[in-house]
Amino acid sequence: MTSTAPSPVANIGVVGLAVMGSNLARNLASREGNTVAVYNRSWEKTETLITEHPEAGFVATKDYTEFAAALQKPRTALIMVQAGRGTDAVIDELVQVFEPGDIIVDGGNALFADTIRREAAVRATGINFVGAGISGGEEGALNGPSIMPGGSAEAWVTLKPILESIAAVAEGEPCVTHVGTDGAGHFVKMIHNGIEYADMQLIAEGYDLLRRVGGLTPAEIADVFAEWNTGELESYLIEITAEVLRQVDATTGKPLVDVILDQAGAKGTGAWTVQTALDLGVPVSGIAEAVFARSLSSNPTQRAAAASLPAGAEEWQVADRDAFIEDVRRALYASKIIAYSQGFDAIVAGAQQYEWDIKKGEIARIWRAGCIIRARFLNHITEAYASDPDLVALITAPYFADAVASALPAWRRVVAGSALAGIPAPAFASSLAYYDGLRAERLPAALVQGQRDFFGAHTYKRVDREGTFHTLWSGDRSEISAEDTH
Ligand code: 6PG
User: Model's pTM, two decimal places?
Assistant: First the structure.
């Protein structure tokens, strides 16, 4: 039943009825106890939704005043509009018609810094503002996404049953938790997307090697991925990659992947992850390589100009195809562990910087189902943080340390082989370099410190004495001296 002159019958409202908003509204409406008010800037979208889904019993509203009147108190509105200025415009409207204690939830992919700003501004009116990361794409929105809400503890009390009712379920538990205050939810969603970029790039590098070195066809690689999806690599992204590779283009009869232009797009969340990690001083090298690989792919002018440059490569002779496939699988798994480890490092650093009490185990728990990076592997991350909530680095947890250790020979063969054969595998290679860097007893950073002190008197610390030192550098060794600058 729909109405255009609503009384306050809805316990939740959705603003923005493009596909994500419509699907979340339908998901909400399908759960026991929810009545959903809907509003969209253009009435057409609202009309289409209520006409196509009479079973949802939406309360359709034509303006913000009607929308607010349709909601029970505390009013709760979920905004699903394009991140950016559109979000600010909707918030401005809602603030006019809402009252203190009401709740505005932004479910878009907002930059967490914007969410911090908006939360502070909206809080000044007495209204709660919650930035909630929602992952799972269109299908997840409809059937159960992973939800990462920030905002106040007060708002969470009202939101908890509503969000739990629509979230994906992993082992009986809804994939939603109160991540932390103000922008914590969008921060964690951003890191999720950064990991998503790394995961996708690693899979793409594996595909490229299987194809160019292993000589497998896309359909054969689809079979390999389907097989991998029954083991420790089991994940949504591996599963859909098999589907993508199996797809045949209707017009040419070629594998569809071969007629898709090889220039990867990006909406920005991967770049935000890397920019934020740079600010926080956290090396998210696997994620960064994934972002840069998309940028490189999307520069046709440079690629065309460089296409005739020599490879200077050696042919990679694969004697045992199955052994090669297994090497690639292991390299992929080890690199994936690095990407998650780096992503969790960024979460820890962000939590420290912004004073969020983020429970890492809870994040792993809510990523087990519904979201794009859902994977069997998340159970191990959940377990790792359950047995040691203060784990210094995920890769040092026994399960992951063992997994990486057993993958090492294969991983090194794949990275070395790619370099020799002239096949780019930036995320595999940088993940391995990160691993070797982190475990190194001594790094050439000592030399970098010497260089910095040489040209800028930036000082250095010594391994054998406390204090800060500067050397009077000179070609004449006798004049070299170290002195405590304090
Ligand atoms: C999700 C996805 C979703 C979106 C990405 C796509 O978790 O459901 O991450 O948020 O598909 O933002 O990002 P790109 O267009 O940048 O690849």
Answer: 0.96
